[in-house]
């Protein structure tokens, strides 16, 4: 049912139309055929443009063409052009006179097109009234399929309140009452349609016998006129040829499109046979019939101008065939591993033996290296050798084979005896084994679960996880610790506790002062959120901020920190001090449509200026590929809010992003600043960053300033602002106020 629903959905929304076009195009290539030659194209080509001084020649030349064609005995003439714009009175009159002279045998074009890229409104393009009085018009409408792989033409359209046939319908003399679109027979090759140059006709250089009795389509063929459309496997073709091929198709019969439903119904029946049949011969027959119905039969239907879409049905059959194959493989391997013949994890989960046994997962550390050195045939021999060594001296034991792990159920309880036994097995595994004349060293890691009360599925996962961790840590074994479940539960409960923490003031904001590098005067601070849990004590922001981002709960936390930070900074400015505040901003917040309005509200509430607020953004690598985030950054910057690229020099905060991102400030990461006095490479990096940032009009803040020597070096480089323990550690608001009030021109370490 699910597979049928998926295939039906794909068919209903034409999800596979591009691939369907490619399949149809391939079938068209197989049965490619020439045009009849009864319809010819007169092309406004490069030769015409050269001899007539361009493609915008006078309509008197169009009038000459019409007279020349009918003098040569053509049957009828169709212009692949609407002539919707007036030119000179003389030229338009000459053309109208030629049209009226041959009324009923010459037709102009009309079309509808979208007016404006995003409006979705259609506008009608018709010949000017002077020409409509002299000649009738026919529809040029059609549309391209996705990726311009194919095209469809219309039978007729409504213009000026009446049904108007398309050019192709008119040339095929079909009833005007037909509506909708049809797919022409694209097996007719465009390059076989007789084609002559516009200027050659006008100047009488074409033998009249080549034109007599023919239907003519006049249209642009010069590349400069941009009237080219793509057909898969035929390339780019002038639009006039599409109408010719459409008419050639309609002259041979009326195309019918049965869509995707018939093929789906056929495959549903064959799929049921494939899934329910127990005999392999019956299943094979069902596959052959399905492939014939989906691959060969459409080619014969195409020749009869009957179109069916097979991709949804093909998708359905592939799903059914894959599902059936997998079900049979699952049934075959329900209890055993096909490589070694050992019982598998499925058997362990559903078995009843050894429920109270210790479970040991065994991982072969160097399995990849061994596999790369031998063919697949050595895999079972390695596993069998490991099993042999595991069972030495063991009578009550059973080994299960997972994908890349062995699971060993042993009667040995968790204790010194099992620990010694595993260490002995580890030593035993170090002895190399000989495979194909080569000595191979084995390296095993063990994960142990001795909690008999937990479900076997959970125990298997725990043991395998411990084995993986032991392998990565290069340990012999690792024991499952039930306490880890408590830690996992705590992490999951962080978000449910976060709102409560905000409401009960468990969360508070600390302020780390920032100073002018040159004067040492404290000019601002960075706001840092802190969580003082009543039982667990201080919780690091690294623990709860990533969880808040993953759970989409960062909004309220950010709003809380912004409000407290701005409130604190405003209280300092109220004392008569010029003071700015910096707040870290998650890039997720840049997707919030009302972010700027929320910040405006907080700033207005505390009467704090926009220019004194800095938003520090770290994950800059996520911004360049997100137009919405970039737009929000620009909006914030335009409102006067300062934007800082945090942790410059690490991760994605590099020179490229400094150029691309709208920002006012660059904050150099402490790891590059801390040792600039002693490390020449760090010094060069910091100095060059300051120069580049200043040349780009950015302010530079250096983190991690912990000594007067580092500050002096930064001053010499022209750094603007410093932050670190030399200026001050993160403190509460009242302590910061005292610092600012005591002496703003002196650096302190408290």
Topology overview:
Elements: H1 2-12, H2 17-30, E1 39-44, H3 46-51, H4 59-71, E2 76-79, H5 89-101, E3 106-114, E4 122-125, H6 129-134, E5 136-139, E6 142-144, E7 151-154, E8 156-159, E9 162-165, H7 167-172, E10 181-182, E11 195-197, H8 198-202, E12 215-220, E13 228-231, E14 235-238, H9 239-252, E15 256-259, H10 261-276, H11 280-303, E16 306-308, H12 311-332, E17 343-344, H13 345-350, E18 358-364, H14 367-373, H15 378-390, E19 397-401, E20 405-410, H16 416-429, E21 433-435, E22 438-440, E23 444-449, H17 456-472, E24 477-479, H18 483-503, E25 507-516, E26 522-533, E27 537-539, H19 541-550, H20 554-573, E28 580-584, H21 595-605, E29 613-617, H22 627-638, E30 642-648, H23 655-660, E31 665-668, H24 670-673, H25 680-695, E32 699-702, H26 708-717, E33 721-723, H27 733-742
Parallel strand pairs: 1-11, 1-12, 2-3, 2-12, 3-5, 15-16, 17-19, 23-24, 26-28, 28-29, 29-30, 30-31, 31-32, 32-33
Antiparallel strand pairs: 3-4, 6-7, 7-10, 8-9, 13-14, 18-20, 18-23, 19-20, 21-22, 25-26, 25-33, 26-27
Helix pairs in contact: 1-12, 4-5, 10-11, 10-12, 11-12, 18-19, 20-21
């Amino acid at each position: 049912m699910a597979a049928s629903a998926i295939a039906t959905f794909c068919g209903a929304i034409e999800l596979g139309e591009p691939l369907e076009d490619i399949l149809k195009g391939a079938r068209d290539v197989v049965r490619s055929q020439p045009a009849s030659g009864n319809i010819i194209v007169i092309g406004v080509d490069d030769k015409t443009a050269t001899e007539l001084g361009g493609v915008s020649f006078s309509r008197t030349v169009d009038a000459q063409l019409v007279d020349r064609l009918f003098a040569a005995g053509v049957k009828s003439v169709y212009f692949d052009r609407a002539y919707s714009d007036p030119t000179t009175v003389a030229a338009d009159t000459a053309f109208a006179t030629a049209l009226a002279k041959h009324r009923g045998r010459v037709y102009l074009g009309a079309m509808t097109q979208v007016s404006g890229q995003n409006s979705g409104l259609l506008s009608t393009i018709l010949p000017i009234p002077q020409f409509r009085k002299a000649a009738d018009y026919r529809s040029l409408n059609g549309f391209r399929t996705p990726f311009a792989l194919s095209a469809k033409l219309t039978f007729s359209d409504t213009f000026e309140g009446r049904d108007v046939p398309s050019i192709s319908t008119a040339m095929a003399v079909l009833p005007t009452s037909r509506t909708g679109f049809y797919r022409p027979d694209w097996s007719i090759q465009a390059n076989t349609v007789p084609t002559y140059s516009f200027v050659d006709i006008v100047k009488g250089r074409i033998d009249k016998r080549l034109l007599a009795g023919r239907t003519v389509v006049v249209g642009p063929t010069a590349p400069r006129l941009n009237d080219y459309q793509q057909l898969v496997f035929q390339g780019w073709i002038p639009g006039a040829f599409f109408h010719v091929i459409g008419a050639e198709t309609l002259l041979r019969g009326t195309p019918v499109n049965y869509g995707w439903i018939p093929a789906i119904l056929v495959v549903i029946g064959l799929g049921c046979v494939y899934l329910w049949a127990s005999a392999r011969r019956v299943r094979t027959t069902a596959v052959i019939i399905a492939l014939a119905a989906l691959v060969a039969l459409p080619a014969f239907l195409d020749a009869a101008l009957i179109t069916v879409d097979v991709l949804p049905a093909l998708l359905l059959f592939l799903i059914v065939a894959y599902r059936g194959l997998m079900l049979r493989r699952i049934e075959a391997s329900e209890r055993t591993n096909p490589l070694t013949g050992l019982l598998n994890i499925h058997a362990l989960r559903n078995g009843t033996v050894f429920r109270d046994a210790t479970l040991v997962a065994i991982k072969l550390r160097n399995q990849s290296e061994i596999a790369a050195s031998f063919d697949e045939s050595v895999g079972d021999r390695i596993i069998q050798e490991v099993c042999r060594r595991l069972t030495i001296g063991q009578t009550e034991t059973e080994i299960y084979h997972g994908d890349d792990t062995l699971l060993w159920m042993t009667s040995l309880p968790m204790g010194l005896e099992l620990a010694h036994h595993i260490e002995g097995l580890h030593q035993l595994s170090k002895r190399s084994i000989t495979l194909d004349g080569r000595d191979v060293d084995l390296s095993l890691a063990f994960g142990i679960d001795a909690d008999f009360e937990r479900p076997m599925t959970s125990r298997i996962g725990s043991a395998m996880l411990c084995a993986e961790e032991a392998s990565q840590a290069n340990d012999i074994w690792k024991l499952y610790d039930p306490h880890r479940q408590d830690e996992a539960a705590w992490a999951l409960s962080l978000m449910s506790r976060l709102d409560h923490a905000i409401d009960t003031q468990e969360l508070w904001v600390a302020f780390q002062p920032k100073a002018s590098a040159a004067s040492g005067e404290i000019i601002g601070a960075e706001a840092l959120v802190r969580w003082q849990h009543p039982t667990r004590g201080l919780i690091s922001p690294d623990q709860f901020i990533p969880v808040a981002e993953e759970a989409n709960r960062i909004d309220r936390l950010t709003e809380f920190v912004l409000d407290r930070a701005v409130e604190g900074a405003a209280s300092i400015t109220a004392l008569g001090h010029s003071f700015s505040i910096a707040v870290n901003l998650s890039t997720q917040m840049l997707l919030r449509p009302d972010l700027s309005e929320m910040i405006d509200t907080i700033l207005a509430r505390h009467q704090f200026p926009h220019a004194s607020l800095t938003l520090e953004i770290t994950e800059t690598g996520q911004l360049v590929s997100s137009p919405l985030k970039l737009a929000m950054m620009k909006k914030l910057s335009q409102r006067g809010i300062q934007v800082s690229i945090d942790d410059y020099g690490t991760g994605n905060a590099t020179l490229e992003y400094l150029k691309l991102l709208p920002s006012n400030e660059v904050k150099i990461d402490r790891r590059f600043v801390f040792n600039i006095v002693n490390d020449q490479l760090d010094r060069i990096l910091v100095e060059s960053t300051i120069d580049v940032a200043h040349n780009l009009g950015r302010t530079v803040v250096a983190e991690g300033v912990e000594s007067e020597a580092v500050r002096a070096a930064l001053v010499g480089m022209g750094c603007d602002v410093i932050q670190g323990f030399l200026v001050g550690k993160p403190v509460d608001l009242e302590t910061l106020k005292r610092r600012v009030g005591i002496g703003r021109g002196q650096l302190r370490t408290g």
